[in-house]
Amino acid sequence: MQHLILNITVVLKRIHLFRRYEEMASRLIITNSCIILILGLFSIDLYNPALPTIKAALNISNAQAQSLVVWYLGGFAVSQLVYGPLSDKYGRVPVILLSLLFSAVGNYLTSTADSYQMLSLFRLFTGIGAGGCPVISRAILSDTFRDKSELSKSLAVFSMASQVSPAFAPVIGGYITEYFPWKYNFIALALMMLAGFIFVKITLPETSPRKALPGGRIAGFRILFSDLNFMIYSVVSAVLFSITIGYFTASPFVFQTQFHLTSSQNGYLFMIYSAGIVIGSWLTKRCLSRATPEKILMVSLPLLVAFTLLASLSVHFTNVLSIGFIVIYSFAVGLGCGLSSPLLLGISLHGHAELAGTGSALQGALKMAGAALVLWFFASGRTGTASGLLSGLFLLSLICLVLIAFAQFWTAQSVHQQSSPDRD
After folding, report:
1. Backbone φ and ψ of 71, nearest 5°
2. What's the predicted TM-score (pTM) here?
3. Which one, 270, 312, 387, 407, has least CB within 10 Å?
4. Which alpha helices (DSSP H) does 216-227 contain, by range?
């Protein structure tokens, strides 16, 4: 009897140690996922406060300055379609190391540009390199967390971490721009990418060992394109991402021209928006223990639409516009995006575990392509004022709500038809 109790004790200790090991491994995966994501986003956010300075230094227009992000996102979007299938076949670690090294070189080359044409070319080159960051950061979470709610919870942490870049990168970039030439923004980015390369090389375990892909690389895309639920949630995720990117790209011209703020003050206002996203993502993580992702989504998106509509109407018909109003607006829109974004990612990525890299790539490509289209619209001059910017963000919120309502209606109808008895 004593021998039996001893054996049971040993087994329980081993189970306990195994669970602790699993928890530590999961945390290490989440940490690497967040760092990889942040590095890719820093190349978008850090130099935003320098856009007016770049415009003056290279003698270019507002539209050309804002289009630099479009060039980056274009390369970012297309390259993800390559990185995803490659990571499914060859593993996540070698692909992300290649991506980080590529983007480090691209950021350094950007610092050497002396014309708009060269700057645009090198931003495109950097985007192609950094395209692996969002793909691998999402894929390693999908590899590790197979339950939809657990995946959504990990993506809530992921979403909170994504705000490290928009919260702090513009502040860092603002101070770099005030005290150094604008080129030093991109030198700093190159050094960050190299530091990330070393960290990932040392700490990231392989979550998807090398394997053959049945049907070739194109077969995975065919499966995902045929999944209407995946496509709609991915498109809505792209539109929601466009709200944040559009705000961060267009607002410096509003803040610095209409309110006469400095680049560093501009950066602090971005922190308010990021705080909203962090709190929203934290609330989503808490709510997932009590409600399904779909139900939470049908509360968060209507609230976002209602607030952006009310704010847009207030600016059009009253004199409410002020720095205080912008602070409240920034926080509320960030809160709405933070509540919804992890849910969209979790719902769309769940269900295709064997295609985590390809699914992440397709979702990321849609997200970046959508953001590039929105930024092209913003760069056309329609959002150069506070009123125009608020109207544009309301329209994007409304598109998100309409598409999600359609997706949930279509899913409910499909389930009803499958559960209905055969009348024949």
Report:
1. -60, -45
2. 0.69
3. 387
4. 217-225
